[in-house]
């Protein structure tokens, strides 16, 4: 039986182009011969916006739907007003394709630099809600630009939206050796949304008696990220808290150059999208300094999502081995990609 | 001329009682003979709520107004539903007394344990907005407890509120040797509030040409807190981001046992309130394990606010000397308080 993957590719801005090229190189090297890989590249991001004023036209959105998955590099450029590409392209994709599970694993690999003394044993996964909370774009401003301006941001949360992501997180926790799930919110201040999250978290927990649970306020969680990160196994949290915590998690596990993510629609109704957590880093774009490892690890998440578990594990093993074996001399984006591609081809 | 301080004291819950006792001990020891200190203690917190159902009755609020400042220990207890005391007492005080500058200095003292390798040189101040943002309590829930529940949290931001705290932060930055101010927000996603903050930040900056400015998204800021905390001098940010960042700041500078804060109303219209950043820590209440240093440093902020600069500096010097001189044997709450009191009395 011949298998195929229809992959949409959005390299995006800055280093996005460079890291995606390496991700595709490793993907090509790891896939079994009988899997037919069809890729289609989309010109979306700052260049397109400057040329046409478009961020994500309907035609592109429709065409993206005809794929099994999306690989995205990075979105954002200083030449574009803050928010235009983030809201008009990246978040539009996450919302249009109902990516309610924003999956962000954090692992301290051997031979990587962590800013933490004592190198704690870090291996956890953040399940960040991806379609609600303060990210809906709800809100506005009145008397804009005057001394009487009032600006609001509305965090929208539904039982439907919270329950599905919480259940997904429990299932992931149940499948891991430690079987521990921590809810992070701020329910002593954001009482409306926070209490709803907590109630649903407790209720869904009844379906998973084997999972140990815990609750932390987001401020306290940041403390444990630096003093006791080994206490975490799976974390479930809202869209904004998840954004903040996963950058911090990336920092303590050796940097944003290694942090992968998946924007997942577990129902399969729409293609899921995989991207490094890092941004477009315009300051180092074109210099060959970008580390493609986060993108390569995102490709592993993509393969696992499509059912290629063995290939996903092979990539993750290759990354661990590559980090372990590397010397102290800096390598270019392409050199790291080559090293990983040859390891997975093995 | 005889001087006097009318101090309202709210020990609150858990270790609040114990650390406030030491704060008062040090305050008594540092004050010049001619300063008359009148204290009035308020029974507010979990005990009062259980006894009477009250969190902060109007009579107490009125009576608190008749003071020059408030010293608060900690609020919160697991026996009270999450949010009741936080919203009904602590935040009610911050809002009623218009504490728009929530001042939180972070300094890595000698001979203290930081989780960061390499002990970076950390000495910054977070100016957290204290009366707006996601903390207003605005929002609600519909079809509560049903599968159709919708819960909202509304972040309210006004040009008036943002401008006054931003100007205060510039003035603080201008008075420090490095003269650097960083705005932290998330204006690529929370575009309504975020753009207003950024516009006002840039505008007010014209009045302070000597101050170098910088902008960071909150997620990126957490990365720098652990990889390059020495880059920060003064940070200004919204209520929720400030809450999160200052716990992280406390963690990287040796823990929440050393983090002081002031809820300041710079106009003097209402008494300002000083409190350690830590909570009531019910797990160690009554064991003598609580470190009163954060409260003692909050007393220094209180004295500085009331114009007792020499006494404030004496307390800060005593804390630095005490940390430097201490051995490895654990000390009780009272022993630390005694050591600090005898140093400032000097
Ligand atoms: C670029 C930005 C909109 C995005 C987010 O806030 O989700 C990024 O920080 C991320 O974490 O993927
Ligand atoms: C107890 C809680 C309401 C409070 C806050 O969120 O402001 C605390 O975390 C703080 O930082 O003072």
UniProtKB/TrEMBL annotation, chains A, B:
One of its GO terms (cellular component) is cytoplasm. GO terms for molecular function: 3-isopropylmalate dehydrogenase activity; magnesium ion binding; NAD binding. The record marks 135, 186 as: Important for catalysis. Keywords: Amino-acid biosynthesis, Branched-chain amino acid biosynthesis, Cytoplasm, Leucine biosynthesis, Magnesium, Manganese, Metal-binding, NAD, Oxidoreductase. Binds 1 Mg(2+) or Mn(2+) ion per subunit. Gene3D superfamilies: Isopropylmalate Dehydrogenase (3.40.718.10). Its EC number is 1.1.1.85. NCBIfam families: PRK03437.1. Belongs to the isocitrate and isopropylmalate dehydrogenases family. LeuB type 2 subfamily. HAMAP family: LeuB_type2 (MF_01035). PANTHER family: D-MALATE DEHYDROGENASE [DECARBOXYLATING]. This is 3-isopropylmalate dehydrogenase.
């Amino acid at each position: 039986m011949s298998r195929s993957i229809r992959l949409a590719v959005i390299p995006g801005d800055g280093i996005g182009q460079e890291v995606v090229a390496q991700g595709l190189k490793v993907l090509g090297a790891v896939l079994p011969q009988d899997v037919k890989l069809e890729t289609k590249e989309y010109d979306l991001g700052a260049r397109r916006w400057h040329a046409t004023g478009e961020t994500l036209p309907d035609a592109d959105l429709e065409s993206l739907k005809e794929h099994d998955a999306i690989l995205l590099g990075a979105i954002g450029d200083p030449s574009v007003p803050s928010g235009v590409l983030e809201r008009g392209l990246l978040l539009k994709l996450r919302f249009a394709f109902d990516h309610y599970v924003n999956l962000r694993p954090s692992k301290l690999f051997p031979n990587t630099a962590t800013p933490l003394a004592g190198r704690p044993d870090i291996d956890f996964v953040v399940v960040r809600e991806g379609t609600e909370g303060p990210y809906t774009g709800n809100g506005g401003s009145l008397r804009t630009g005057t001394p009487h301006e009032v600006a609001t941001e509305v965090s929208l949360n539904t039982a439907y939206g919270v329950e599905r992501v919480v259940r997904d997180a429990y299932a992931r926790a149940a499948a891991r050796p430690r079987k521990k799930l921590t809810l992070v919110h701020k329910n002593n201040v954001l009482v409306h949304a926070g209490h709803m999250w907590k109630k649903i978290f407790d209720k869904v927990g009844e379906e998973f008696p084997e999972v140990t649970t815990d609750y932390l306020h987001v401020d306290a969680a940041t403390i444990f990220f630096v003093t006791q990160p080994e206490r975490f196994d799976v974390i479930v949290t809202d869209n904004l808290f998840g954004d903040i915590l996963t950058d911090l998690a990336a920092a303590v596990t050796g940097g944003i150059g290694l942090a992968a993510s998946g924007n997942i629609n577990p129902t399969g109704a729409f293609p899921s999208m995989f991207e490094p957590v890092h941004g477009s880093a315009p300051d180092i774009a074109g210099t060959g300094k970008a580390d493609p490892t986060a993108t390569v690890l995102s490709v592993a998440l993509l393969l696992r999502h499509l059912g290629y578990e063995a290939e996903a594990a092979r990539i993750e093993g290759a990354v661990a081995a590559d980090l372990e074996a590397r010397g102290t001399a800096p390598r270019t984006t392409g050199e790291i990609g080559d090293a990983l591609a040859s390891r997975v081809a093995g």
